[in-house]
Amino acid sequence: MEIWARRQDATGQDDPHRDQYGRDRARIIHSAFFRRLQGKTQVLGLGESDFYRTRLTHSIEVAQIASGIVEQLQGDPAYEDYQAFLPSLQLVEAIALAHDIGHPPFGHGGEVALNYCMRNEGGFEGNAQTLRIATKLGEYSIHSGLNLTRRTLLGLIKYPVLHSAVVNADKYSGRDAPSNLDAYKPPKCVFDCDAVSVDFVLEPLAAGERATFMAVQKMEGRHAKSCHKGFDTSIMELADDIAYGVHDLEDAIALRFVSEQQWRTHVHDRIKDDAARYPLAQEIDWITRELFSGCSRERKHAISYLVGYFIRSCSIIENGHFTNRLFGLSASMEAPKRAELDLLQSFVVQKVVKTAEVQTLEYKGQQMVIRLFDAIANNPTRLLPEKQQGEHRQYGMRAICDYLAGTTDDYATRLYHKIFTPSSGSVFDRL
């Protein structure tokens, strides 16, 4: 497994006694890109409350859940043959902590807006930007970004396919934009300009297996989809789904975005009425009482139970497509419990994310991103900071995209007002 601990840039300064994945974890935590997650929207807009999750607190929770999944699988005798391939706790935490560092301001709305701006320039997608930060933009090396190990990078590639292989440009044509951006959701991918990074990560794979790993599934009238992901990535994605379905639910209840009646109608009663399908039916009554008790301690008791419940349902499956088990193994969740988690996620989406209150803020953020991008693209020497001007001369529109994707919600808002609001802005305002 030593080949997976290699870095893009062999500086010769690594302490041979230090755990390489521990170093990756430290670099991620101390990176400015990671710190900026504290100023980026998770589900609810920043500034409304100091209780709910930001991208930073979400990432920390995903790391904790991911390490819990690994510990669960390490302790299960059914997976004794797979122990050597399970990631260490430091490795899986590094992957989980970094999994969202590429996401732009204003949540998924900002992602769609940047994809609209880059529709003719190679597109934009948050996971692809994460790899770009890890391999090019991060501050730990001149040419290799955070210069993480190959296995950590593999764990960060959720969709190992190039943009050109999956994009369906017909989705973008003839649409009313930028007023309506619904058609501009990006394909899940890696940017073509970062193909060399993918080459490094997948170097140990034989050519045939590499082609299999990067296979795509065509979708009529939609972007194509990737077919595979690495073992570590599958663990991180399960942790991400659990955090999204359970912890974002906690935020929604605590901030009274959802009522007990809505919960009973859309979750409690469906689980209770189909006990044969949903194992949680035996516990759903007391979970509901605790969630809506009005007491934070009791609510947290139910939330903690749900997190543990889903962690204990995780398992390992072997897909048979690859001889290398980092690719041939995958973490999965028992089907009935996966259906329950999907139900929680759907509830959060329909009763929080899709509400007019949240969508109005998302729309506003999108319009700010588009206007900023357009202004900077037409006036790069006037509006880009000096460092980004040099990158713009080299990388063109991608440099502007990197700049805006790296901003926080607050920074982007202040930059918008500095440029477009007559009463805002000063030569002393360094943002």
UniProtKB/TrEMBL annotation:
Family annotation (Pfam families): HD (PF01966), HD_assoc (PF13286)
Keyword check for Membrane: no
Domain HD: 55-245
Gene3D superfamilies in alphabetical order: Hypothetical protein af1432
PROSITE patterns linked: HD (PS51831)
Chain residue ranges for the region called Disordered: 1-20
Keywords for this protein: Hydrolase
Stored NCBIfam families: antiphage_dGTPase, dGTP_triPase, PRK05318.1
Family: Belongs to the dGTPase family. Type 2 subfamily.
Protein name: Deoxyguanosinetriphosphate triphosphohydrolase-like protein
Lineage start: Bacteria, Pseudomonadati, Pseudomonadota, Gammaproteobacteria, Lysobacterales
